[in-house]
Amino acid sequence: MDIVIATKNRGKIKEIRDALNRIDIKVLSLDEIGLHIEIEEDGGTYSENAVKKAVEVAKRTGKTALSDDSGLEIDALDGRPGINSSRFAGDNADDRERNLKVLEMMKDKLITKEGFLHCKGRENMGRHQTRSCGNSIKYKIIVQYV
């Protein structure tokens, strides 16, 4: 069975390949099948964006498609950058620029507590089978500004 991963993110492709490497599924990237498209992530939720990408790739390829969407939600910033995490620092910003933008946004915030990071955007969508993260992940953040 072939599954097309509806993302250009190499890290996500590797992560999904690693997760599925023990079963008889061939994981294909968009580049590997020669599909060069931009799918606008304009949904109001992570689920809407993930479903939109998977459905569009499945229609264009005739193959099963898998997608996800995620974002960084920071309690001290009232959940921002959230669903717009990849674009909040500018359309062409790289990881370093996004990280610097977050640090700038956090400069006047004091983080003094432990909390929980909860996975969002992976619910059962009827025909579109997705997986839930299940439990929250406990984290402790230590931030040092230099």
How would you describe what is shown here?
With 146 residues, the protein is α/β, with parallel strands linked by helices. It has helices at 10-20, 46-61, 95-106, and strands at 2-5, 26-28, 64-66, 72-73, 81-82, 115-117, 137-139. The chain has 2 domains: 2-69 and 112-139, Maf protein (Alpha-Beta Complex), CATH 3.90.950; 73-106, no CATH class. It has 3 helices and 7 strands; from the N terminus they run E-H-E-H-E-E-E-H-E-E. It has a 3-stranded parallel β-sheet. It is elongated.
**Mean residue pLDDT:** 78
What is the N-to-C order of secondary-structure elements (H for helix, E for strand)? EHEHEEEHEE
The side-by-side strand order for the widest beta sheet comes to 2-1-3
Domain module tally: 2
How does the helix and strand content classify structurally?
alpha/beta
The stretches of 5 or more residues where confidence is low (pLDDT under 50) are 116-146
Q: How does the overall form come out from the CA principal axes?
A: elongated
**CATH fold-level label of the largest domain:** Maf protein
CATH architecture of the largest domain: Alpha-Beta Complex
Radius of gyration: 17 Å
DSSP strand count? 7
Roughly how many Å apart are the termini? 50 Å
Estimate percent helicity: 25-40%
Main beta sheet strand tally, sense and closure: 3 strands, parallel
Number of helices: 3
How much β-strand is present in the residues? 5-15%
CATH first level of the largest domain:
Alpha Beta
